[in-house]
Here is the input.
Amino acid sequence: MPAVRSSNGFLQQLKATMRDMDRTRQQIRDEDVEMFDRKVAPVREEAFRAVSEFMEMYAEPMEPLGDVEPVIIPHQPGKQGGAKKTNRGVERQDISPDVSTVHLEQEQKQLPSIPQDQPALQSWGNLREDLVELNDLIHEFSTMVHEQGEKVDRIQDHVEEAHGNVQSGVKELGKAAKYKAAMFPVAGALIGGVLGGPIGLVAGLKIGAGAAVGGGILGFAGGSMWKKRQSKQLDIELDKMSDRQSQSYPDFKTTPSGDVTQSDTGYHRRPSA
Amino acid sequence: MAYGRGTFDKTNPFADEDDDLNGQDGDDGGWDLMRDELATRQGNISRSTQRCLGAIAESERVGVATAEELLHQREQLERTEKNLDKINKDLDVSQRHITSIKSMWGGVINFFKKIPQESPPVAAEEETKVQAAPKLRQAMEASQNQPRPAGEHPALQLRDESRYAQGTSQSFQKWNAEYEDNLDDMSTGLGTLKSLALGLNDEISEQNAMLDRLGDKTDKSEFRIHGTNKEMRNMLK
Here is the structure.
């Protein structure tokens, strides 16, 4: 809209001038402010009126912002279509706030809104929810682990105590087994005695009998030998005696057993009986 | 009712904050409003990101603490298992004693039965202990070694929202950079959290298996102890 554009230039100039006035106003001394106002006020009023009229006139057509890029992407330098330019937010920092309110309303109609990026928003929301859920989960987990930690503690203590008890129990059993084992030699001795006694007795009896018999036989044999020896000596002596008495008779003798032998050395007589 | 502090430059929406009285585009009011809205949103986003970062960091912290507790409990369980094994061995020895006490020929019987050996290869056990729960330890280390933003905890950092309302390109770029940094931090934090979670999962599974074993061994030990007690009582009668 060329007409608007050219009026834009005018408007801008006007606005700039008004701002200049404001600035100057702020820069003058306080005592001069009144005078300044007095001089400037009428001109200002008229300027305001003109501008507001213009704005009202052209406010509506400026509304459709279809041609204006609505997205305010921060990276990109500003995009304003010409249409926006007629939004005159006249800055008045101290005086005439009413004008600014008028403009404000108009601006609000015509401002493009920062668009909603739905997918991003959704994913952001999901992310937030997930994070919160995750946080809760972790806390719950931690609590459970902590509780169970106490149980594990008790388990460990119990088992350790049990182990100690079993160990002392086994030691006692070992002692008992040792005592029992110490009994064995005594028991063995007893058994040996109990068993060996009768055996020895029986054996001893037998041996005693044997010894007696043997001894008897030996004695008899010895006695017999002695007797024989004695007899022999006696015989020899007898023979000697009979030799001196009769040398004319032939040497022979008869014994009742009938066996007579002649020999140079003497008489051999078969032992009788 | 000042909406902004500077004019809105045509070419650069976030021109310098100096009052630009070049009389250019007079759209100040509208753009100021938008700028404010933008600033608010920036602030919101920043705060939201900070909260998320804070949540992630806190989750990580809690996770690491839980992991340490779990490791401690693992040691306790291992000690318990060793104790139970010792108990079983002792019960074997006691059985020998009982057989020798019970009957005359017990000693003879024992002579032929094997002697319960002390056989723990202690060195090998130590090795496996060091490697226990490697994933979890790794995740824990990774979390603890992570470079934190210098200074305060991310959740505690307050962002001055008015910063963003200045409408300058530098401040915006700064905000943007911070935003991206925050997102990066969130991403790394989540990565650490994931490995932490995996490690915790493994640890819990292993400890479950251990607990099952412990349960079985305890039942067996209890049964044997009862039997041994009964035998002894019979002997003493």
In short: The CA atoms of residues 241 and 247 of chain A lie 11 Å apart. Residues 60-109 of chain A have pLDDT under 50 and may be disordered. Chain A touches chain B through 68 residues (CB under 8 Å).
